[in-house]
Design goal:
The protein is mainly alpha-helical. 69% of the residues lie in helices and 5% in strands.
Length: 245
């Protein structure tokens, strides 16, 4: 089984494509989710009325079934009646039309999203990042509240502006939290399966074929249990190396 796997990796295209898709998904989801999560945590860290309610609202996707979320997003991405394309169709800008000023759609031809080979994976990346933002933001929020107020007081006395405070105080002191979120997000990225299975079932082939879905196909569609087990063990080794690093 391992010899077959190695031969497929060297001489075949499917396994290389599957690995490339998995790396693409991880590279797209992790930075996007982390950046938005940090920005959201900075907003939720302010002492304003009702902020506790907003924290709960943003955290809700993290405790909602990923199957249910996948079904909802699949409906939202529907090119015929989905709300995403409807909202894109409502984006209009003033433009010269037939000698006069009229409104022209900013996105005249919305994509087919999950049915479009060029947009299927970006659509899943957006959905996956959205589901991770709330959980990551809570972790970042805990990290922010662990930073002593004396650091910020000293910075204000020295005349530091908001960007300098973030760059030289907040960001460095959040590095342990950032490392934890990054590591767990990368591991989760390599293990992605449910949203792929529910939203595209690997189609349009091979754009959304990721590693764990490939393992599932080999095991429960083609019934190559030994080969699938070898694939799964290689994934374990990949994740182990990433975690050790």
């Amino acid at each position: 089984n391992y010899a077959t796997l190695w031969n497929d990796l060297i001489n075949g295209e499917t396994l290389r494509q599957v690995l490339a898709n998995t790396v693409y998904f991880t590279a797209g989801t992790v930075p996007l989710a982390m950046a938005v999560s940090l920005a959201l945590a900075l907003l939720l860290n302010r002492k304003i009325w009702g902020v506790a309610g907003f924290r709960v609202i943003f955290f809700l996707p993290s405790v909602t079934s990923i199957v249910a979320l996948s079904i909802v997003w699949r409906l939202m991405y529907n090119p015929d009646f989905g709300i995403v394309n409807r909202l894109l169709g409502m984006l209009k800008v003033p433009w010269i039309v037939d000698g006069g000023i009229g409104l022209v759609s900013l996105v005249p031809n919305p994509p087919g999203w999950l049915a479009d080979p060029n947009w299927a994976m970006p659509a899943i990346i957006i959905m996956s990042a959205w589901t991770a933002i709330g959980y990551n933001a809570i972790l970042y929020l805990a990290g922010l509240q662990g930073i002593g107020a004396s650091f910020y007081e000293a910075a204000r006395i020295d005349g530091a502006n908001a960007w300098q405070v973030f760059r030289h105080i907040t960001w460095p002191l959040l590095s342990p939290t950032t490392l934890f979120i990054f590591t767990m997000s990368v591991i989760g990225g390599f293990q992605v399966f449910t949203q792929i299975y529910m939203m595209t079932a690997g189609r349009p082939t091979p754009q959304t074929q990721v590693y764990v879905y490939h393992v599932y196909t080999q095991a429960f569609t083609l019934f190559r249990m030994g080969y699938a087990s070898a694939l799964a063990f290689v994934l374990f080794l990949i994740i182990l190396v990433i975690t050790l690093l």
